[in-house]
Amino acid sequence: MKIAILGAGAREHSIAKAFIDSGFDTLVVPGNDGMKWSGIPIKKVQETADEILDATISFAPDIVIVGPTEYMVLGIVDKLKAKGIKVIGATSKSAMLEADKVFAKEFMVKHSIPTPRFRIVHTLSQLERALKEFEPPYVIKIPTLQGGKGSFILPTISEALDIGAKVITSGFEGMWSEGLVVEEFTPGEEYAVQVLISSGDYVILPMVWEYQRLYDHGRGPNTGGMGAVAPIRIDDRLFGLIKDLVGKTIKAMLKESLAYEGFLYLGVMAANNGIKVLEYNVRLGDPETEAIVPLDSAGFVRMIKDTAFGRLPENLKPFGASVALSLVSEGAPYHYTDSVLKIVGSMENIYFDHVQEEEGMLHVSGWRPCVVVGKGNTYNEAVKEAYKKAEEVIFEGKFYRRDIGESLL
Ligand code: GLY
Fold first, then answer.
1. What are the tens digits of pLDDT across the range 28-84?
2. Per CATH, is 2-89 categorized as 3.40.50.20?
3. 189-408: which CATH topology?
């Protein structure tokens, strides 16, 4: 059976590895040079809808898995489906649940899905008024895709005004809605709830903790993700509440013709005043995927196959624990330092992201060149393995958090 995986990052690398290990004829479009170095077949093309579609269709895959939301927004899922190809991924309409934060908030309100209190603002004076309604820190969400960096948590009103004013005065250029979300900051325990939607029903994957901020103990700017630990065991009461949120969401998606075969990610906050949905993503998280797939890669492959062929899959049966650790470049998440990347050891458990081959060497080509994964029977073993692996990847300005998994030990 032939599988095409669309995307160019560490998430797609870990998915491709699972399919190759299960003996599938696998191609990643467009992939990256690090994947090629790891023995994963890639078809390098420009990241435009036409080039991605052409390369995918000429591979004649039985199933296509679409990784990034950007591709879904471009209508790649819709176009492949129109050709009768089985696809795991959201339609361009459904992708608005992630791409357009205003659309997502209105969806939640319409269907009584608990979410932190918010205001949608269109003008500078509305922005100022809304910020005064809330206490610091201030949360601002902009209605576009920003690689996981479209939500800002700002300590002062003046910083929040600054960010908001830039978007408002640009006339919401490049945004999906002409409005900003100003949201009440909601402290608590945050969970990455990843769901596979299949035939109008769903399966909730084992829970993951992820670490968004650049520095230890949740300090510094939001990034696309600095680490993840899985599986996280939660008590039955909390799981029941999470199940309610997921059930309500899927029911509402079916009602609004927004359901699809593919992954939905709910950023859920268990706060003192209840459990709430912070955001939806219409894809698997990154590095959450790199943490969860290796725990039962054959099970993951089976889930995709069942979903593509119209069967509700059985859940993963994760064995042990795993830790995914993002290795980032000095200047992350906004800049990077161009340098050569070397591996001293095996390529196993290294998933590449922003790297590029130049003159026979791999170079860092973005803020996060790779993610390393440690697995073990216990969290302790998995943490040790991940940090050991991090030492085997060498590049100038390498930086990573030192507290991933710490609170579980
Ligand atoms: N790690 C968060 C995300 O993938 O959006």
1. 999 999 999 999 999 999 999 999 999 999 999 999 999 999 999 999 999 999 999
2. yes
3. D-amino Acid Aminotransferase; Chain A, domain 1 (3.30.470)
State which ligand 1 atom lies nearest to the alpha carbon of 212: 1
What CA–CA distance (Å, rounded) separates 79 from 96? 17
Residues with CB under 6 A from ligand 1: 148, 210, 224-225, 281, 285-286, 288
The number of the ligand 1 atom at minimal distance from the alpha carbon of 288 is 1
For the chain, helix, strand, coil in percent to 5 are: 35, 30, 35
Residues 67, 282: Cα–Cα separation, whole Å: 9
Q: DSSP secondary structure string, 165-223?
A: HHHHHTTSTT-SSS-EEEE----SEEEEEEEEEETTEEEEPPPBEEEEEEEGGGEEEEE
Is the domain covering 117-184 a CATH 3.40.1280.10 domain?
no
This prediction has a pTM of: 0.96
Distances (CA, A) of 229 to 123, 127, 324, 376, 391: 40, 37, 6, 12, 19
Rounded to the nearest angstrom, the distance between the alpha carbon of 65 and the centre of ligand 1 is 17
- Look at ligand 1, atom 2, and give the residue with the nearest C-alpha: 285
Ligand 1 atom, smallest distance to 286 CA? 4
Helices (H), 142-235: 157-169
User: Tell me, what's the pLDDT at 148?
Assistant: 59
In 3-state terms, what secondary structure has residue 244?
A: helix
**Cα separation of 341 and 195, whole Å?**
35
Choose the residue to mutate in 97, 141, 281, 284 for probing ligand 1, maximizing ligand atoms within 8 Å of C-beta: 281
